[in-house]
Design a protein that fits this description.
By secondary structure, this protein is of the alpha/beta class. The protein has one domain: Vaccinia Virus protein VP39 (Rossmann fold). It contains 6 helices and 12 strands. A 7-stranded mixed beta sheet has the order 8-7-6-9-10-12-11, with helices on both faces. A 5-stranded antiparallel beta sheet has the order 1-2-3-5-4, with helices on one face. Strand 9, helix 4 and strand 10 form a beta-alpha-beta unit. The longest helix is centred in the last third of the chain and has 14 residues.
Length: 219
Amino acid sequence: MKEIFPGVFKDGNRVYTVNLTPGKKVYGEKLIDEKQGAKQLREWDPRRSKLGAAIVNGLKEMPIKPGSVVLYLGASTGTTISHVSDIIGKDGFAYGIEFAERVLRNLVELANQRKNIAAMMADARKPEVYKWIEECDVVFCDIADPQETDMAIRNSTEFLKKGGCLMIAIKSQSIDVTKRPQQIYEQEKNRLERAGFEIVQMIDLEPHEEKHCMIVARK
């Protein structure tokens, strides 16, 4: 088992984080107890998580680190943010923004178990509603919406520290079904550059996530 980023481990093609709440699963993932009993690892399923898929597909720089403050837009039921919670640990904090009430219940339950997550029902189009949030090291955006990049830019302008990173999962089909996915990725990358971001990496998430890519950009 090799630590590829602080708090992220890899064994062959499988990726793991250290379970912040030992013995508890979030989405039916496999738990592994180390022989010495020092820590418990949670397997990270790349088919259930865009960030997990990006890591498996060759993410070179991991902006989310122990102690990071993360604004997560589109936290859904909490699959990926639970691994973010593992990585940032007790010294970090993740603000999980979710608009859909039906999935927010799961996120609230997760936040009750993990004290480094705040589950918030809000619209990422209106960051002024949660303007009290502190400056963040990372803005992570995973919203299937044609205006996703605009939302990511606006939230980054409001909350992201200078030198901080934006990670955005682009679903090409949510933006324009008539164009090839690669065209959409380039289009959204160019929009980020025009907004003043430096593109760090673009990662195609196939075959784990169909017609998706992850863009990592620095403010």
